[in-house]
Design brief:
The structure is a homodimer.
Chain A lengths: L4 H5 L8 H11 L1 H6 L2 H5 L6 H7 L5 E2 L16 H4 L7 H8 L8 H11 L13 E3 L2 H12 L5 E6 L4 H8 L4 E6 L1 E2 L2 E2 L3 H5 L9 E5 L12 H15 L4 E6 L17 H4 L6 E8 H4 L8 E5 L6 H18 L4 H11 L4 H24 L7 E2 L7 E5 L8 H11 L2 E2 L1 E3 L3 E5 L5 H19 L1
Parallel strand pairs in A: 3-4, 3-7, 7-8, 8-9
Antiparallel strand pairs in A: 2-10, 5-6, 9-10, 11-12, 12-15, 14-15
Helix pairs in contact in A: 2-15, 7-16, 8-16, 9-10, 17-19, 18-19
Chain lengths: ~450, ~450
C-alpha cells in the first residue's frame, strides 16, 4: 500500500507544510523563492518527534524523547566516556551527551551570532545561525536548497575540489568557471565571466571562498568594491545565490587587507542578490575534529522568512544527520563564553602569520622559470603555478616529491602545487620550497 | 566555460573512477550493482586533498593538509577548549581536535567491529565499519546509494518518521508499508506484504528496525526465523537491500528474546539479499550528543567489493559532511578500549529494564476500552493504540495532555501514543500512564 506524504504526517497538526512555507518565502523574497531547487521547495520541518519533544519541554511528565536520561533530564553516560569531558560543569556535561536541538544549542547560536557580527552595524540583518556538522554540511544543505539538475554554479578556479562532489555529483549542478588569477593578479570578475552566458532570469549559484582555498588570497579594499559591484550587476540578470564560504575567516596576514566577510558587503545590495554565510569553528577556532559549522541568511532573525528558511534547513539537517553534534558545541561554547576569546583566536593567527612571512620570503627567492608563486596574503595556503612553457603537469611533480624527496604537497590539475603552510613547522618551510623547486627542475630537464 | 568531471579530477591520477569501481561491484555482486541508484553509480572517492594527504602521511616535509598544527602533527587548539577534554591523554587530545580520516579513525573502526561481532562466527563476513555522523547520516548515505525516484521502500508501520525525510523527501523513493502488528501480535510478514506488488527483478529497499521505534518490540526466535525466511523469499523476486537500523541494539528486557542484530541472520542467505548494518554509539553507548554512527556491509573486509563500496561511501561522506566528528570518536574510543566495557553498557540496560518492568506492570492495569497497549519487550518505547471504536485520533489526545495534564507524549497518526520510558523516572511512570488514560477518557465522552 502506498502512503501519501500528507496522510501520516500532517494529520491533525497545527504546523505549516511546504506549500504554506513556500508562500511565506515567495511573499518576502520572490527571488529567493525562484532560486529554490525542487528539493528546496519540497522541504519543511515535519511535526514529528523532535517537534513534539520541543513542545513538551518543561512538562512534569515528559515521555516524548528517545534518549536515556536519569528521569530528571540529565544524561546517563558511561563513566569511561563522561570522565573524558570532566572539564565541563555537570549541566554542560549532560548537554554534551544529550541530543542537540536540530537547529543547534540556543546559547551557541546566539554567541556565534555575536562573534560573526562584531563590528557590523545593526542595520545589516542576519538570521540566528543554524548549526551544521562542519562547513561542508552547510554547503551540502545550500546545494540541496538551491541547486538542481543543470543549475548554473559559478566557481572561480582553481577551487576546493569538494564543491564538485557537493554540488555537481550529488545535485547535478552545471559547473561554470573562470580563472581567479589573470596575469598573476586576482580577478574580481571571475564569477561574472563564468556566468556570462546565463539566460536572463535563470537563477544561479556562485561560490565566494575568501580567503581562498587553494590560493590563500583575500582581495584588497578596491578589489572588494569591484567584486561586489560585479555581483550586483549579475543580479540584474536574475536571482543569484552567493555562498560566502568563510572557512578561513580572519586568517589575514597583511595589515592593509580587510578581514571581514564579504557577506556583509552583499547584504541588502539587490533584491536578486541572495548572500548565504557558511562559517564555523573548524578553522576560525582551530577545532577541525569538532564539526561545528553555521549557516546564516541575510534576513532579520525574527522575520517570517527567517522562520520559513529555518524550517527548510531543519528538515534537511534532520534528513541528513539527525541533529548536530552536541559534544563539540559544548566544547566550543566554553570558548565563546570567554570575554577575551579574541585573544586566543588572535594567537593562532599570529602563529600562522609567522609561517606566512617565512614562506613568502622563501618564495621570492625561487627560480621563476621553474615555479611561479601566485599572490597570497591570507588563509592556510600558498599556490604555485608551474610555468606553461615547462609542459609539466602538477601530478607527476607530486608523485616525484613523494617518491624521491620525502615531501608531500597537493597537486591541483592541470599545473598547480598547493602548500599548506598551516601544518608545516616554520623551520621546514624553506627546505620544503627548495625540494619542490628541485623536483620541478629534475622533471623539466 | 563548462568543465567536465574528468578534466580537473582524474587527469594524471592513478585511482579508480566510478566506471572501474562499478565494474568491480558488478563482478562481485550483480544484485548489489543492480540495486545502486543513479547517484550510487556516479560516486567514487576522488583523488583530491584528503586522498593526497593520506598518501603523504609520514613524510618529513608534509604540506598537504589544511589544518593548523604545531608543525609536528599535533593540534594547535584554543586553551579554553582543549582544557574541557583534559581527560584525554595528549595524543588522543590532539586527535580529537584534528580532522578524522573520512572513513573514520582506524582504531575506532576496528574496535567497533570487534564490538559488533562479539559472539558471531568468523564465517559471517562484515566490512570494517565506516564512521558516519550518527545513525541518521548512515541512513541518508544508504538512501543516496540505493534509493532514487520511485524506488520501492518497504517500512513496517508505524515507523520512525525520519525515514520519510531521508528516503522519500530527499531521494524520491516510493513508500510502501504494512502493519507491524496484526491482531495485537508482531507481523513477521510486514515487509513481504508491503512489497507484494513489486515487479519481478525491480530492486527494492526494506528497513528492519529492531528493537523497533516507536513500538519497542524485538521478535522471538521463532518470529526471527519467519522474518528471515520471508526476506529470503522476497529476494527471489529481485535485489533486496535490507537496512538493519540497529539503533537500539542490545536494549532487550526479556530473557527469552534474542539480542543480536538480524543482520547476522541475513548475511550470506541469498545472492539477491543485501543486508546493510547501521548502528552506533548514540543509544548503544548512551552518547546521543556525540553523533558517532557506523555503516557496515556484509562483505569480507579486504575484498575488492568492500574497497569499492568504501570508495562510494567516502565520496558521499565527504560530499555531505566533509569528515566525521573526531572529538566524539575519541570520547567513544576511551570506552571501547576498556576490557570490561560490556559492564558499563549492561548497567544502562539494567536501568532501563527497571523502568520497562514498572511500565509493563502499569499498562496491564489500564482500561482496555480506552488504551490498548501493544506488545513490547525492548528498546526505549511502549506504543499504545487508541481503540478504533473510540474514533479518537492521537494528536488531540497529545494536545489535551500538554494543555490540561502537564504531560508530554508523542502522537503517531492516526491513533498511536508513544511513551519513551527511557527518559522518565521510574516513580513517574505509573502517574504518566494514569494521565494518558484520563485524557482519553475525557475526550472519549
Amino acid at each position: 500500500m502506498a502512503v501519501s506524504s500528507d496522510t501520516l504526517n500532517r494529520g491533525g497538526w497545527k504546523v505549516k507544510g511546504p506549500e504554506e512555507i513556500n508562500q511565506v518565502v515567495r511573499e518576502a523574497s520572490p527571488a529567493l523563492f525562484d532560486a529554490l531547487s525542487d528539493l528546496g521547495r519540497r522541504v519543511a520541518y515535519p511535526p514529528d518527534i523532535p517537534f513534539q519533544g520541543a513542545q513538551a519541554r518543561g512538562k512534569t511528565y515528559n515521555g516524548t524523547i528517545g534518549q536515556i536520561t536519569d528521569g530528571r533530564g540529565a544524561a546517563v553516560s558511561l563513566p569511561s566516556m563522561s570522565k573524558v569531558m570532566a572539564g565541563l560543569g555537570s549541566d554542560d556535561l549532560s548537554r554534551a551527551f544529550l541530543y542537540s536541538p536540530v537547529a543547534g544549542i540556543e546559547e551557541v547560536r546566539e554567541r556565534w551570532r555575536d562573534w560573526q557580527r562584531r563590528g557590523q552595524p545593526e542595520s545589516k540583518p542576519s538570521t540566528l545561525p543554524q548549526v551544521t556538522n562542519g562547513l561542508a554540511h552547510g554547503l551540502s544543505i545550500v546545494a540541496d536548497l538551491f541547486a538542481g539538475e543543470g543549475t548554473p554554479l559559478a566557481v572561480p578556479r582553481p577551487f576546493w575540489g569538494n564543491y564538485r562532489q557537493t554540488f555537481v555529483v550529488r545535485r547535478g549542478a552545471t559547473l561554470l568557471t573562470a580563472p581567479v588569477y589573470v596575469d598573476g593578479r586576482f580577478n574580481p570578475g571571475a564569477i561574472a565571466e563564468a556566468l556570462a552566458d546565463r539566460p536572463k532570469g535563470r537563477p544561479a549559484v556562485a561560490i565566494l571562498n575568501l580567503p581562498t582555498n587553494p590560493s590563500g588570497y583575500s582581495p584588497t579594499a578596491e578589489e572588494r568594491r569591484e567584486l561586489a559591484q560585479s555581483l550586483t550587476g549579475m543580479a540584474e540578470k536574475g536571482p543569484l545565490v552567493v555562498v560566502c564560504d568563510d572557512a578561513y575567516a580572519g586568517l589575514v596576514f597583511e595589515d592593509d587587507i580587510p578581514r571581514e566577510s564579504m557577506f556583509w558587503d552583499l547584504v541588502g545590495q539587490h533584491e536578486n542578490l541572495i548572500p548565504v554565510k557558511i562559517d564555523g569553528a573548524t578553522k576560525e577556532f582551530s577545532f577541525f575534529g569538532g564539526r561545528v559549522g553555521f549557516l546564516t541568511f541575510a534576513q532579520p532573525p525574527d522575520s517570517d522568512i527567517a522562520t520559513a528558511l529555518d524550517s527548510k534547513v531543519k528538515c534537511l539537517v534532520r534528513a541528513t544527520v539527525g541533529s548536530p553534534v552536541a559534544a563539540s558545541q559544548m566544547v566550543l561554547l566554553q570558548a565563546l563564553r570567554q570575554v577575551d576569546i579574541a585573544k586566543e583566536v588572535e594567537a593562532v593567527r599570529v602563529l600562522l602569520q609567522e609561517r606566512y612571512s617565512i614562506l613568502k620570503e622563501a618564495l621570492t627567492r625561487v627560480d621563476g622559470s621553474l615555479l611561479r608563486p601566485l599572490p597570497f596574503n591570507s588563509g592556510c595556503f600558498a599556490l604555485i603555478e608551474l610555468p606553461a612553457e615547462l609542459g609539466l603537469e602538477a601530478e607527476p611533480v607530486r608523485q616525484h616529491l613523494l617518491e624521491h624527496h620525502d615531501t608531500g604537497v597537493v597537486a591541483i590539475a592541470p599545473n598547480y602545487i598547493r602548500i599548506a603552510f598551516c601544518s608545516v613547522a616554520p623551520a621546514a618551510l624553506g627546505e620544503l620550497v627548495r625540494r619542490v623547486e628541485m623536483a620541478v627542475s629534475e622533471l623539466a630537464r
